[in-house]
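Protein modeling request. Please complete all fields; requests missing the sequence field cannot be processed.
Requester role: graduate student
Desired output: 3D structure, token encoding
Chains: 1
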Amino acid sequence: MENRVAIVGAGMSGLLACRYTLEKGFQPVVFEAQAGIGGLWAQTIESTKLQNDKEAYQFSDFPWPSSVQVFPSNTEVMDYFESYAQHFGIFPYIKFKSKVISIDYVGESDEELQRWDLWGGTGKPFGSKGKWHLIVEHTEKFSTEEYQFEFVILCIGRFSGLPNIPEFHPQYGPEVYTGVDYPCTMIQRSTQWMFPTGYIWGMNLAFLYFNRFAELLVHKPGETFLQSILASLLSPLRWGVSKFVESYLRWKLPLKKYGMIPKHSFLQGVSSCQILMLPENFYGKVEEGSIILMKSQSVGFCREGLIIDEEVEPLKTDLVILATGYKGDEKLKNMFHSPTFQNWIMGSPTSTVPLYRQIIHPRIPQLAIIGFSESFSNIYTSEIRCQWLAHFLNRTFELPSITAMEREVTMWENYMKRYAGGLYRRSCIGALHTWYNVQLCRDIGCKLRRKKGLFAELFEPHGPTDYVGLEPQ
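Delivered output (473 residues):
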């Protein structure tokens, strides 16, 4: 029987999923709601630039053109994606303007699923009598069709699709606003650690946080007793590195002057993927008055603009941009027709989406999710996940029991809660991505050391080119 694979989304993760399933002999169908590839990048304004430098944000075996600047623009990123899709023959497998509005697993009852000890009943990607039914809306044809697949890969991301619109009191919503012209005022409830460059006191931030040595300083999911002892002994160094970074940012930027010092540590920020690069000359604009910084816990609309906290006078403005994020968890939940699967994918009220290896839900069969959990170079982590998934689909390895997978999920959740603190609720492996990569490489059976020499392996940051073409030894 043909093992049909559906991929939902033709953003960066969808392109990678298509490329690596094709390599293993599958004939995937990619459903993309928009008229072109690129996902979130296709929806950003042209002035948007990567926060990563191009060496950190690239496909492992498809380098950027030498003419591209260090921090590529929106247009350059889209051209890069287009070139990648052309080079690996991905376009013929994409159905554009085809929005998947519902997926439903048919053929196995909830009672049968609950009795399974192994994922899908067998621990293998195929073999169950169940199939996924996809309801797809073809917007160009004004029609809706149902498709059947043995396996589904969701690459829908978490930063698009379902905006997180704040709730406003009656008569204080956007409908009452008309607007006037004033300087740009940036209002936020909390502040994050932001960088003018990727260097701290002349040292690349990657050497402080994104290598194996840095990961020795933190307690890791599944660590040995000796690794746990070492992390405890090195905890003063862990604290010192965080303060080292914070001291630089306090010195380099007028954070205290403008009330922009975060209440959380830098370690918590990096452990929750909530650090960011500042736009060019950001504080220069603040100093000259063209950007005004404010903090507020509540905002409402009035005819002239915004009502800030208990201020008597409104903040007059011409345009309001709600940069309040997206409801990624809820968007993912809404993909499923089954209430049982909706409950499973949401996890508990105190946890995020529970995924084994940040890819597979232990109790939802024949389905994988790529691109939901974050790192500091999502193209890099999505690619290694797609390689892992392609090997799994090709039966290079099998999954452990459902109980073992759930135990692993809990260990990663506890790690995130421990180091993210109050910022937890985002699936982030940013401060532990090399340790995470080791788990995927061990599953595949490829070599765990990815660099030449022990010193390089321990102290140099790991990046996309270290994980080209993962194959069992």
